[in-house]
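Chapter review: from sequence to fold.
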Amino acid sequence: MTTVQFTRNRPPGQTSATDERPPQQLAAPILTFDLLREVEQLRTERAWQLTDHNAKTLVKDPGLRVIIVAMKDGARLPEHHAPVRIVIQTLIGHLQIRLPEQTVQLPAGSMLTLEGNVAHDVEAVGESAFVLSLSWPTDRSEGAWTSPYGLSTR
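The token string follows.
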């Protein structure tokens, strides 16, 4: 059996570069972001042209993930749940968050928190953008899961 070893040509906590995105630091003692600039960048990328939303991880730390998501008018992330507490903060536009018992209107400047395992879907009313923060499990006892944002615990 042949063993293949990969060499890492970037510092720990940094993404690799792509044609559309330069390398980015995801973990550091201090990180700052221009959120409106991040949204504008998402809107220039191929994923935005081909689909109804685009997302980018801003922070990937042992206990925290922060993702910025841009959605076209009418775009919908189907029902899903995360095994961890989440925070959704609307930056631009308006979101409708459908929960089992209610629908929450989340206009720009609003924030919603959900405990783990609460089923919800997200719909953009007008072109919208939001920041999603997840309290990430530091152990893997939660099991693997994948969100509609393209995140996975693996």
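Two observations follow directly from the output. The longest helix spans residues 35-44. The helical segments are 35-44, 46-50.
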